[in-house]
Amino acid sequence: MFDVGFWEILFILVLALVIIGPERLPGAARQVGLFVGKARRYVEGVRSEVESELDIGEFKRMLHNQEVQITELQQQLKTGINEVSTDIKKELPSSDFLSDTPSHSVHEEQDSDVKNVGSEDSASADAVQTKQDKS
Questions:
Q1: Residue of 118 and 93 predicted with greater confidence
Q2: Which sequence spans correspond to the domains of the chain?
Q3: What is the SS3 assignment for 101?
Q4: Are 92 and 100 in contact (CB under 8 A)?
Q5: Do residues 117 and 125 lie in contact, with contact meaning Cβ atoms separated by under 8 Å?
Q6: What is the pTM assigned to this prediction?
Q7: I want to staple 108 with a disulfide (CB 3.0 to 4.6 A). Which of 50, 55, 104, 115 is the partner?
Q8: Is residue 114 within 8 Å of residue 129, measured between CB atoms?
């Protein structure tokens, strides 16, 4: 963690011996040991609480389960779409798709009206002409 080697520890011990003195050094070492032990236990407790609160494995399992459910739903949707499209193709063949519309076009009606104009009298020809102008 701190990357402290042998020579650094030896230097700290010699410095502590000079500053504290030989009489109080064992008591100070004991106090430092107790403090380091409490700090380690505190850090380990916090780490275990954080890991239990944020259980990464549990989140991964939940995410995987959600992905599986999404994939299953996508497959069901595709199957449903395929079934509906085949049902539509069976029910409505392409030739009968617009069965309620007349089989002749508007242009054919106008042409037949124009042909009838020649055989009718002039009053009915004017009526057909006004009909064509309105449309």
A1: 93
A2: 1-54, 55-91
A3: coil
A4: no
A5: yes
A6: 0.37
A7: 104
A8: no
